[in-house]
Amino acid sequence: MERVTTITIDRIAHDGAGEAIHNGKKVRVYGMLPGETGIVELRKRKGIFVGELKELIKASPARVLPHESHFLSCSPWQIATYPWQAAQKFALLQELYGYYDDLPKPSFVPAEQLSRYRTKIEYSVTEADGKLALAFHERGRWGKFVPLPDGCMLASDQMNRAAIDTLKALERARYMGTEIKSIIVRESKTNGGVLACIYVTTRERKELHLEGIGVTGMVLVYSDPLSPASLASEVLERYGIETLAETLDGVHFEYLWDGFFQNNIPMFAHALMEIKEHIDPMDNVLDLYGGVGTIGISIARKAKQVVGAEISDSMAAFAQLNAHKNCISNYHSIAHPAERLPDGLLGKDTVLIVDPPHAGLHPKLIQAILGSTPKKIIYLSCNPETQARDYSTLREHYEVEFIRGYDFYPYTPHLESLLVLSLRA
Question: What residues pair up with 194 in beta bridges, in sequence order?
């Protein structure tokens, strides 16, 4: 296949890339929309032909100018109008569940806020013009960086300023770019407060001067340089407050600097409201992948009792603490993996709530569900593809009551989806 060629995009793939068939081969190009023609430079990566747009010849009516030069690294759909984005996401949800003719029609909730919505953002660090710079990886080219002098529009101005000022403090302390793996900034959208988490690849203590940096807390973490992920091997220094707090529907949640919390608070509130509508006062609820109790504690006032299970000891402990601080007595948290539940926890009278990671439900959990057949499953997913895959296994015993998508991540191809299943009669 030619290295540089002219390609017309046929459709949008599930990962958000434009897709075309060229010389009998499938080609994926980020930054192009269906119907567009462009000159593309091709390369083969993991057996797939990937293209980089060099010149646009014919533009889609939905194309707009991107807000940022680095848009391919963070939000590749900045090139399209928001109505087009919402329509694509709704179409994806309909396609995933369109194989079944006995399902209710899906619905879709568009985003309320298109930028500055994230509660967490992770910046890599590179060197540009002899100075440290925030950066994102180039899409599809791990190890190559795009410098970000002003941060990113997905984070608030306060988060971006905190990241930039933190980087300046690291530079004054004479950290080299190769010694800094990432800077993660987290912000409470409802209670205020900003945390900066610095992941470094050296245990050498260097004097950090943090005066004037607009954060309520900061954590300096040693992270194994052999791993590309920002994972904590050892906490080197702590400054200020290590927790953040959010308030949802009158319930106050606290979480640690390394704990999970939803990235788009207004959209999560939409999903949470609809989860509550499927809970009855006499329900015994099991909330798996429960985190710090955001779903389980929120619905506890409507249910008979709720057990939240979370694999992380610290998050399970915070869930119990959050229940106590909110005077919720019918919620109990356990530190336990979802795929190895204690006997008797999942029964026929259980309403099961699951909010799994991107990979979906563990096969052992699916077998436990099929063996115990809880009366209802409420499945919130950050990956509708794995959710639809899991439903294809569960559908022998369950029928769909409700399907709805939510645009948690505008300008990206990602969406959240809520599926409610009840036992077939």
Answer: 187
Using the Cα atoms of residue 409, residue 271, residue 243 and residue 361 in order, give the sign of their dihedral.
negative
For residues 377 and 354, the answer to whether their CB atoms sit within 8 Å is yes
- Contacts with 324 (C-beta within 8 Å, 6 or more apart), sequence order: none
Torsion angle of alpha carbons 75, 79, 84, 87, nearest 10°? -30
Cβ distance 58 to 43 under 8 Å? no
Taking the CB of residue 229, how many other CB atoms lie within 10 A of it?
A: 9
pTM above 0.90, yes or no: yes
Euclidean distance between CA atoms 391 and 12, whole angstroms: 24
What does the pLDDT read at residue 211?
Answer: 81
Q: What is the rounded distance in angstroms from the CA atom of residue 404 to the CA atom of residue 416?
A: 9
Q: What is the per-residue pLDDT for 1?
A: 61
How does the average pLDDT of the chain come out, rounded?
94
Average pLDDT of 119-129?
Answer: 94
Task: Tell me the pLDDT tens digit for each residue of 151-183.
Answer: 999 999 999 999 999 999 999 999 999 999 999
At 63 the pLDDT is 98
Token match 């999970």: residue?
260
SS3 387: helix
Could you tell me which residues are beta bridge partners of residue 55? 39
In angstroms, what CA-CA distances link 6 with 31, 32, 39, 181?
15, 12, 4, 38
Q: Residue 113: CB partners within 8 Å, gap ≥ 6?
A: 264, 266, 410
Q: Which residue has the tokens 């709530």?
A: 353
pLDDT in tens, 46-77: 778 999 999 999 999 999 999 999 999 999 99
For residue 373, give Cα distances in angstroms to 280, 341, 399, 421, 424: 18, 14, 12, 11, 10
User: Higher model confidence: residue 63 or residue 143?
Assistant: 63
Q: Closest Cα partner for 175 from 220, 212, 145? A: 220
Catalytically active residues are 382
Taking residues 200-204, report their average pLDDT: 95
Query: Which pLDDT does position 128 carry in this prediction?
Result: 84
Q: What is the dihedral of CA 179, 220, 261, 319, to 10 degrees?
A: 140
Exposed, middle or buried, 37 (CB in 10 Å: 0-12/13-18/19+)? middle
Domains and their CATH numbers in the chain = 4-63 (2.40.50.140), 86-113+264-423 (3.40.50.150), 120-242 (2.40.50.1070)
Q: What span, in angstroms and rounded, lies between the C-alpha atoms of 264 and 266?
A: 6
